[in-house]
């Protein structure tokens, strides 16, 4: 991406703009949920955020650890997450929900809500192409999030904050926890 002139850390740039726009403090505790090899978490750490990462894939976590041993990396299934702490911001970049078993996808929203501070934010980006049976519709995800205690506050067509419309093939959603 960098060679093509694109920001390889567009998700992190998005989060920084979101924090500025919402006038949030900059020392947020962030969970990179479904962190894979740690690309987003490591960049957040470099930019001064307090970060932890979790993924179900042990090999990917090993690669993440090799990049930033000082961060907390936890192997866990997002549908059954139990980290014993809460976060100000949870990011799920890179189609994370699509890697969760279909039957477990509705459980992810409740699981991440249990790890969210009272008015924290969840930012999730995912493909919406509907040709493989694994895609989560906008309505499904928003319902699961609402049922778990989140309200939708922003929706975009990409990490560059393009305007979302019902023909978009990608969506980035920002939900905020409501109540306790």
The main pleated sheet reads as: 7 strands, mixed
Assembly type: single chain
How confident is the prediction overall: mean pLDDT? 89
Structural class: alpha/beta
**What is the total tally of β strands?**
7
Write the layout of secondary structure elements.
Elements: H1 10-21, E1 29-33, H2 39-46, E2 50-55, H3 58-67, E3 72-75, E4 87-92, H4 105-113, E5 116-127, H5 138-148, E6 150-156, E7 170-177
Structure in words:
This protein is α/β, with parallel strands linked by helices and about 180 residues long. Helix content is about 30%, strand content about 25%. A 7-stranded mixed β-sheet has the order 3-2-1-4-5-7-6, with helices on both faces. The radius of gyration is 15 Å and the shape is globular.
Summed up, what is this model?
This protein is α/β, with parallel strands linked by helices and 180 residues long. 28% of the residues lie in helices and 27% in strands.
For this entry, give a set of tags.
alpha/beta, globular, 180 residues, single chain, seven-stranded mixed sheet
């Amino acid at each position: 991406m960098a060679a093509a002139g694109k920001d390889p850390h567009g998700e992190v740039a998005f989060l920084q703009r979101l924090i500025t726009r919402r006038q949030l403090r900059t020392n947020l505790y962030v969970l990179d949920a479904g962190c894979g090899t740690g690309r987003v978490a490591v960049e957040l750490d470099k930019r001064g955020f307090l970060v932890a990462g979790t993924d179900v894939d042990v090999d990917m976590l090993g690669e993440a650890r090799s990049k930033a041993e000082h961060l907390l990396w936890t192997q866990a299934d997002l549908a059954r997450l139990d980290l014993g702490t809460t976060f100000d911001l949870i990011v799920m970049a890179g189609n994370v929900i699509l890697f969760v078993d279909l039957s477990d996808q509705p459980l992810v929203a409740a699981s991440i809500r249990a790890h969210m501070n009272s008015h924290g934010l969840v930012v999730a980006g995912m493909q919406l192409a509907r040709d493989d049976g694994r895609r989560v519709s906008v309505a499904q995800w928003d319902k699961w999030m609402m049922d778990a205690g989140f309200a939708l506050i922003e929706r975009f067509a990409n990490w560059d904050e393009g305007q979302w419309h019902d023909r978009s093939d990608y969506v980035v959603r920002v939900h905020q926890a409501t109540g306790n």
